[in-house]
Amino acid sequence: MDANLSSAHKILVLNTLAFTICFACWTLNGVLVTYLVDNNIFNWSVVETGWLLGIPILTGSIMRLPLGILTDKYGGKPVFSALLLLCSVPLFLLYFADSYWIYFLLSALFGMIGTGFAVGIAFTSAWYPKEWQGRALGIFGMGNAGAALTTFFAPTLLNYLSAEDPENGWRMLPILYGITLVIIGCIFLLFVKNKKVTAQNKSTKQLLEPLSNMRVWRFGLYYFLVFGLFVAFSQWLMPYYVSVYKTSLVLGGLLASAFSLPSGVIRAFGGYLSDKFGARKVMYWVLYSSLILSGLLMLPKMEILTPGKGITAKKTGIVKSFGNEKIILDNAEFAISAKPEIPQQTSVLPESFSWQEILVKQNEHVQKKQLLAQGVTLIKFEAHIWVFSILVILIGIMWGIGKAAVYKHIPEYFPNEVGVVGGMVGLIGGLGGFIGPILFGYLLDFSGLWTSSWIFVFLISAISLFWMNQVIKKMTNNAAPHLKDRIEHVNNNKD
Questions:
Q1: Domain end point (choices 382, 414, 440)
Q2: DSSP code for 307
Q3: Same domain, yes or no, for 463 and 475?
Q4: 102 and 134 share a domain?
Q5: Is the distance from CB of 431 to CB of 224 less than 8 angstroms?
Q6: How far apart are CA 24 and CA 404, in angstroms?
Q7: Which end of the chain is more exposed for a tag (fewer CB within 10 A), N or C?
Q8: Same domain membership, residue 391 and residue 373
Q9: pTM attached to this predicted model
Q10: Is residue 40 one of the residues assigned to a domain?
Q11: Whether 196 contacts 290, CB under 8 Å
């Protein structure tokens, strides 16, 4: 067993490395498209940008299930090798892209690299015994930190490559990514030993039967949130920082990587927490945290203008004079508050500014209780970029923990259908990464609010939490009260 484990560990290292590179390539458009638009190399709209961010995620998601089945049938070596080598081709061809639709098509093709997750999960699982599965898959899942490699290094590479040729220097970046895929693909072909899972004699109908269980779709919704929206924001945060906080591409990439890197790395710790406390309890922590943090992230840019305390005449009179400090009638005078200087950047906490605006004119005859000056109050909240970034990092960490918790659920409830259920849950989660940037683009275009993306996260978090609460309430009602704390292990066929 020691020798077998030693071989398994070597495969795990190579699988994790390959998956990391796959994830880095999968999220390339988050940096590259932002650079192209920000530097006016291509004049793509917000909606078009959203589609370019999302289309690689779509193709990499919808093909996860069939690629996972192929891995079970033929083993990870031929499938992973072919995937790495074939996906390098559209990256090389991006060098020649000169229009939106050519770029769109090539993005869809290289997005297939996102299926590396399904291939790697199946290949890793084939090498490890049951007692090692959790640890091994948790370590493999850390490879989604590859998104941080792109957001951290790609902006600097783009600046370097474009120094002498600002218009076309960017074209070398996908070439470098393609070369990396070729190298990893060749390593798999030459140095990796193949292994397949034990064959199961099941019909297609039998394999797909678990998908009729509502629990699968509930797990899919959880994964849509913690993985899909993680992938979406791994790309969306780059234009977010550049447009909202006016950062440079390099600083925006650094801050975006601060979101994606911890979220990827902490996935293994999420598996440990799920083993120790139970996956359902951990998901409660994750969903509540996501709800609170997304609620806070909805607010960083906000101004509310509301009526304030005004000044009214105490009796009939004539306006003799007025200025910035007072209004003088023939029978009284009133002090007024001038409009203060409002800073462009306020404190971490909301601030209010109040003043009064004069409504009357010189020599105007005013009546008793007539409004002389209306009150105005401005509530301004414009959290500093570092406050925003800390909240973003925290929600990324919680999502990273949640990714492991979701996949901890699957073998608990579907011990004999991990492949098909895990593939479908992964597919739904991946679709979140596709839908997210496109939807964020439409929401921004419709509302004019960059924070609309966080409003969407808040709604998904609330729906997920409500669904979980309803399920637990139903399960508790069907079980004896003394079993409430042990409900994590109750395995009903239907929710």
A1: 382
A2: E
A3: yes
A4: yes
A5: yes
A6: 20
A7: N
A8: no
A9: 0.70
A10: yes
A11: no
CB 301 within 8 A of CB 382: yes
Q: Which amino acid is at 181?
A: L
Q: Would you say residue 495 lies in a domain?
A: no
DSSP 192: P
Cα–Cα distance measured from residue 113 to residue 118, given in angstroms and rounded to the nearest whole number = 10
Residue with tokens 């203008």: 305
User: What is the spatial distance between Cα 288 and Cα 459, in angstroms, rounded to a whole number?
Assistant: 12
DSSP state of 378: E
Spell 4-27 as b/e; 16+ CB within 10 A means b.
Answer: eeeebeebbebbbebbbbbbbbbb
How many domains does the chain divide into?
A: 2
The 10s digit of each residue's pLDDT in 18-45 is: 999 999 999 899 889 989 998 889 999 8
Cβ–Cβ under 8 Å, residues 264 and 399: no
List CB contacts of 171: < 8 A, sequence separation 6 or more: 94, 95, 96, 97
Asked if residue 324 is part of any domain, the answer here is yes
**Co-location of 328 and 265 in the same domain:** no
- The domain boundary, picked from 327, 355, 382, lies at 382
Whole-angstrom Cα distance, residue 220 to residue 225? 9
Predicted confidence (pLDDT) per residue in 35-87, tens digit = 999 888 999 988 888 889 888 988 988 888 788 777 877 888 999 999 999 99
Answer yes or no: do 250 and 295 share one domain. yes
Q: Same structural domain for residues 264 and 319?
A: no
Structure tokens, 265 = 């790395």
Say which residues have a Cβ less than 8 Å from residue 291's Cβ, sequence separation at least 6. Answer: 458, 461, 462, 465
DSSP for 460-482, written as a single string: HHHHHHHHHHHHHHHHHHHS-GG
User: Do 378 and 391 sit in the same domain of this protein?
Assistant: no
CA atoms 240, 243, 244, 246: torsion sign: positive
Q: Which two tokens stand for residue 82?
A: 């072919």
Q: Kindly give, in sequence order, each residue whose CB lies less than 8 Å from that of residue 183, ignoring residues fewer than 6 positions away.
A: none
The verdict on 281 and 315 lying in the same domain is no
Find the range with the poorest average confidence among 105-109, 129-133, 288-292, 441-445: 129-133
Determine the length of the chain.
495
Is residue 155 in a domain?
Answer: yes
